[in-house]
Structures
1.
Amino acid sequence: MTYEAKQPVYLPVVDFLNLEFHLMDARPGVKPDAFVTELVQRWLAIEMSRLATRKNGRALRGFQWKGVFLPEGTHLRTSYLDSIEFAQVVGDRIRSDDGEYLTPSLFANRHTTGRNAWRFVWLRFPGDDYWIRADNCRGSAAKKLQGHVLSGCEVEASEPV
């Protein structure tokens, strides 16, 4: 067991107790300090990605999915029954959480067959707080030509805009 230095963070007692009781019901065995640590780490990862995007601009690398460009760092999510799968664009490929490189179709159909990835894959672009259905990004190609693009969706127009 390795030593990990810790710094106390003070919360109002009522908030701490509400968190502790909620964790007892929703996630038995999870201690409040471990939960808050995980929460802060996830928040920091998103905020650092958002800051890097603001400072350096959008990624130059990414995955081209037909008319939609997924910049490096884009997260993908799909679900089937009780299973939720995640993947991320790394370089110019999509890598699942277990390290396997996939196409969007293979990602959407890991536990079944015949699913259209555009309808079953959700995307969270670097620096965004929310998930957007892939089909909504694909549909924004026409809107880009009219000057109205959904935030985060990188669409390749067939004509110069």
Note: The mean pLDDT is 83.
2.
Amino acid sequence: MLPPPPGGPRTDAGPGLSPEQRVRALEPFWRTPGAPKGGTGLGLALVCKPATAGGGHTRLDPATPTGLDAVVTL
């Protein structure tokens, strides 16, 4: 299977995030309360900071039926 095109949405099939959590999800080291062990909370922050520095932005949208779509625009 080929990866999505650059800049296309990346979908996570987890339980999703509330609007308040989506804002916090871009902060380094932030993890959802009660998240399973593993991970550092850096993934979205490592994508968001360089995109913003280059004049782009990162948008987090709820996915259907569950999860999260992360869209980076450069």
Note: The two ends are 25 Å apart (CA to CA).
